[in-house]
Amino acid sequence: MPTLLFYTRYHCVPSKGGTEHTTITIARELLEQYDIHSVSTYTNNFEGDSGCFDAEYRLPDNKNKAILYIKKIIEKHDVNFVIIQGYFHEIDMFRNAIKHRNNCHLIFTHHFNPGWEILKYGEVVERINRTRGFKHLRYKFKLSIFPVFLKLSNYNLSKRYRNAYKAADKVVLLSSGYIDKFAKFGNFKDHSKFCVIPNALSFAESFNIESYDEKEKNVLIVSRLDERQKRIHLALNIWKQVKNNPNLANWKLQIVGDGERPCVKEYISWANNNDIPDVTFFGRRDPRNFYQKASAFMMTSACEGLPLTIIEAQQQAVVPIVFDTFSSIHDIIKNNVNGCIIEEGNINIYVKALENLLLDAKSRRFMAENSLYSQQKFTKEVVMKKWVELFTDIF
């Protein structure tokens, strides 16, 4: 059987984020189901333990030293497949490390809606407000020439997409809806290297629908606390409007997760200053117990790939409500059947849809039951079979 080498920018522990969580799931399930072994490489440390890799290596910061180190790792473990989990900058480094090994192949996975990285004017303003010194001056300069800077930035980003496709033996996307977008953004026409493999369900068991009446009046957010992508302030403002309905006085919002740096206290302060009622921040926790008790799930992300938290929520009979900001959401949710998809930017409709979901227990249970039945295409067995088929196709 082949040996795999995964690269993630951060140490691969499940509490770090979706990319790391997904990587661990793939490595663990391939080991258990197919006896395929994996090693992990990463650049930045993060406390925790994955428990599924034969070995884990932190790469040197120096690129040339990192290439030599990767070569030694590949030789030591007789690696057949290098899987880069979504990072463009490291592709050339790994391609250089394997270029003289005929039995080692490079797979690049992209975990987001292609083009999501495009910088927006408001994001530059936000970075100006939260930086000091040289970085502050640098962002002010970028803002002063924003049209030129944006054009240059998009050109370089498009070049990275094109280079990733050229360098990889296969490019794995989370949804077929991303294929044309990736190629168009990278400005190339060939589609032969693309392969679609979704994320797999996180939990071994689904919620027992017979226990549905034990669920509580909790709305749940499980997310990294990040404004650029996750838009937590938007979610809180929506919740504030929902709570204006006196018939929803007993409902509570629970938020599980933290930022790249600890920032829960900052969000608590923001919520207090903006009079957001009945919201509790729990920080970084195992979300399973929260899913099991929750009845509805909020997502307000500006973009996603194929979000684990949505399929986790559905697996635990928690009805999701999401803005239509990424193609794969239509692979997961059929509107008003197993969740709610809201037109991007239409906050009033989101508020009304969430109110209706919380007020209508019959409809909520209907969608919760359908959520459980719609998960079969995301089972670990189905998803791991796709990975093995990919390896067989290349090898």
- Helix-strand makeup class: alpha/beta
At the first level of CATH, the class of the largest domain is: Alpha Beta
CATH topology of the largest domain: Rossmann fold
CATH architectural name of the largest domain: 3-Layer(aba) Sandwich
Give the low-confidence spans.
none
Strand content: 15-25%
Which strand order do you get reading across the main beta sheet?
3-2-1-4-5-6-7
Distance between the termini: 11 Å
Q: What composes the largest sheet? A: 7 strands, parallel
Please estimate the helix content.
Answer: 40-55%
Q: Please name the fourth-level CATH homologous superfamily of the largest domain.
A: Glycogen Phosphorylase B
What sequence of helices (H) and strands (E) makes up the elements? EHEEHEHEHHHEHEEHEHEHEHEHEHHH
Count of separate DSSP helical elements: 15
Task: Evaluate the radius of gyration.
Answer: 22 Å
Counted up, domains total 2
Q: How many beta-strand runs?
A: 13
Mean residue pLDDT: 92
Instruction: Give the overall shape.
Output: globular
Notes on the structure:
There is one protein chain. With 395 residues, this protein is α/β, with parallel strands linked by helices. It folds into two domains: 3-118 and 157-200 and 379-394, Rossmann fold, CATH 3.40.50.2000; 209-378, Glycogen Phosphorylase B (Rossmann fold), CATH 3.40.50.2000. The protein has 15 helices and 13 strands. Strands 3-2-1-4-5-6-7 form a seven-stranded parallel beta sheet, sandwiched between helices. A six-stranded parallel beta sheet has the order 10-9-8-11-12-13, sandwiched between helices. Helix 4 (121-130) packs antiparallel against helix 5 (133-144) and helix 6 (146-167) packs across helix 7. It is globular.
